[in-house]
Amino acid sequence: MRNIILAAGLLGSIFTQQVSAEGECGKVTIADMNWSSASLIANVDRFILEHGYGCEAELLPGDTMPTSTSMIEKGEPDIAPEMWSNSVKELIEKAVSEKRLVIAGQSLSDGGEEGFWVPQYMVDKDPSLQTIAGVIANVKSFKHPEDPERGAFYGCPAGWGCQLSAENLYRALNLSHAGFDLIDPGSGAGLAGSIARAYEREKPWFGYYWAPTAVLGKYKMVKVDFGTGVDVEHFKACTSQAECAAPKVTMYPKALVQTITTSDFTKKSVQGFDYLSKRAFTNDQMNGLLAWMEDNQADGDIAAEYFLTNYEDIWTQWVAADVAAKVKQAIKSR
């Protein structure tokens, strides 16, 4: 009888320890990347993991290459909330195969986006402008600021990685022959400014841009359809390369933007990992939040509080009802 009682007590103790372990997340480190959308997501994750799942969450400064390398070699940080995986694709795939890293889910559900754009108000007046054929047919509408006989196409700033793809697609689409001149905006601010000036006057604009960005949150733009779909292999081998003798027309491939964790984190908090697998923003949502951050000069922490306070309909879909209740209470107590 005594042995049975001891055995029962031992089993009870083990069960209690297991329940306790599952309920205790412990210390979790999160990469706070040095761009606005990533910092916003990192702060949202910190708040929800801390107040919803009982983690001792801490933010660490991060960037794509050093963060991914540190996660693989040192097991820290535990979480990279917004990893643009294309630039470190082979490194991450190898680490996943070695069970050092785990892909939790997508940070941006529709991926990072690039393309050639025109303002929404132009498409509202003439729906054909959402196609490249329509843009070319209306080249005279997109007047060059210094040569009214030519159209203006605003490219990616010189020295940026996107300069190559934008110029190669400009060639592939025969935009020069169609009457467009390629304009170097000089900088990211110059490119953003050209869109802002066009919007203030409701003037035509045609050029390269990307998402998620504050600019596309403030100014509604339509991505021009080339009618070709995406040729991923050609884009990698030629369109995005300096030595691309004969670029073909292709839409930009979607950039993979993922949440990556260490394998250890999946053991620390099963529920926390489940949250990360569900937590994703659309580009439209993130564009709007980035615009708010810029207008209010808000950092990631302030933006996270704004998001959690004003967008319950979005984030409550990522967590269970009891977790949502804890997070809401924590927001009220701030």
TrEMBL record:
Q: Which Pfam families match?
A: OpuAC (PF04069)
- InterPro entries per UniProt: ABC_Gly_betaine_transp_sub-bd
In this protein, which residues make up the domain named ABC-type glycine betaine transport system substrate-binding?
27-309
- The UniProt entry's coiled-coil ranges are none
Name of this chain's protein: ABC transporter substrate-binding protein
Lineage start: Bacteria, Pseudomonadati, Pseudomonadota, Gammaproteobacteria, Alteromonadales
